[in-house]
Design goal:
about 140 residues; alpha/beta; four-stranded mixed beta sheet; three-stranded mixed beta sheet
């Protein structure tokens, strides 16, 4: 069996509101409560994001979802329908633009607790880099 990420905990100020918002944007199911003190978002058959109530400070995290073109269109439409500001880069000013520099489309937004969410249609993290390919050929 290959190793797969099963679940991750997302610290937030209001676990139910944050879980409900992400589930809406991704168009996936969620529950107000699950195992333990969490509000789970069922991203797919193999990944659950467990939103946990955090009263103390916590680091801002970055979560990225690779989606189909149709799913991407739906996510962007739901972001716009909720009036959520979005941008074409992970950090920086809100430009209400979609990034197309990596052979697909990418959008970033923050949820109320500061976490950075990303949806993309082509994984730039999985694309081979030309320099890496050249060094392999040289060896």
């Amino acid at each position: 069996m290959s190793i797969q990420l099963d679940h991750a905990i997302v610290p937030v100020r209001d676990r139910k509101a944050a879980a409900e918002l992400l589930a809406y944007l991704l168009d996936v199911p969620w529950a107000e409560s699950g195992t333990g003190p969490f509000s789970p978002v069922y991203v797919n058959d193999g990944l659950t994001l467990d939103f946990d109530q955090a009263d103390d400070s916590y680091p801002v995290q970055h979560y990225c979802f690779r989606v189909s073109d149709e799913e991407f269109d739906g996510i962007v439409a739901r972001i716009k329908a909720r009036g959520i500001e979005y941008r074409s880069t992970p950090h920086g000013s809100v430009d209400m633009e979609i990034n197309t520099q990596h052979g697909g489309r990418i959008v970033y937004w923050n949820e109320p607790d500061g976490h950075v969410w990303e949806a993309l249609t082509v994984s730039y993290a999985r694309q081979p880099r030309e320099e890496h390919n050249q060094s392999l050929k040289a060896n």
